[in-house]
Each structure stands twice: as structure tokens, then as C-alpha cells.
Amino acid sequence: MADAARKRLAKEVKQLKKKPLDLIWTEPDPANIQEWHYCFEGPKDTPYEGGFYHGVLKFPNEYPFKPPAIYMYTPNGRYKQNTRICTSFSDFHPESWQSTQTISTVLVGLLSFMTEECPNAIGGMQESKSERKKMARESGAFNKRNEKFCKLFPYLLERM
Fold this sequence. Notes:
Elements: H1 2-18, E1 24-29, E2 32-41, E3 52-58, E4 69-72, H2 103-115, H3 129-144, H4 147-152
Antiparallel strand pairs: 1-2, 2-3, 3-4
Domain UBC core: 4-155
Organism: Oikopleura dioica (Tunicate)
InterPro entries: Ub_conjugating_enzyme, UBC, UBQ-conjugating_enzyme/RWD
């Protein structure tokens, strides 16, 4: 089944290179196509504006029939760092997953949940707006200390 997952992921790489997402960059780990790193740019008029948020999607051998595990590395005030994120499109809720979902739909959904102002929304924590703005200002320096981020997203370093 891992071959099917790798084929699907390779197809999605090509699609995302042809049609990139707004405010979202993705790069598969060169050594493991089943591990995709992503970076969100904080949307305007949100507490995340000006921030860059790095995380990873870990795809099971059964992808696209089973969902990825999702992690966020950059402190952000919404999702806990280095902890699996609980969403309807993550491995926390495989019963909600549909094989028609893609990396694009997962990442767009994750960014959307991140910017929601709902205290009980999926994600794990809700820092104050001022704390999230502070984290946004500090996100670039945090990411620049991450060797993996620098290797995968060198084109973002001067934007931070």
C-alpha cells in the first residue's frame, strides 16, 4: 500500500508546484515523500499577520485512504507545538476522512481553523491576541534557527 501512497503524494507535489496555494508553501522531505513540511504566512487583519508558521504532515502508508498526522513547530498561540493536532481531517478522526481530500484541502482547512476566533475550536489552545501578535513577530527568528526549515524553505528566509 505504501507504493500507492507515494504515487498519490508524487502526483500532489506536481499539482502544488503548478498551482501553489495562497499564503501556504509545502515541501516534501527529500528523504521521505510521506513527510511534508508546510509554512503558513499569517493572513492580513489577523493576529498572525506577519508571522510564518512551520509544521509537518506525516502520511501513513495507507494514504489516501487514511489521513495524515499534523504537527505545528512554530509557536503560534493556536496550535500546541510539536503535538499532533486534532481536526476532522487528521489521524485523530480517521472516521471523518475521505480519500478525495488532498494536501491542499488539509492545509487550507488547517489555516482556516488557525485564524478562527472561537475559544473552543479545534486546535488545543487560544492565547490572547496580543500574545499571538508577539509570536507572529518572533516566528521568523524561531524558524531561522530550524535547520530543516532553512533547507526546505530558503526562498522564505529573506521575507521573515
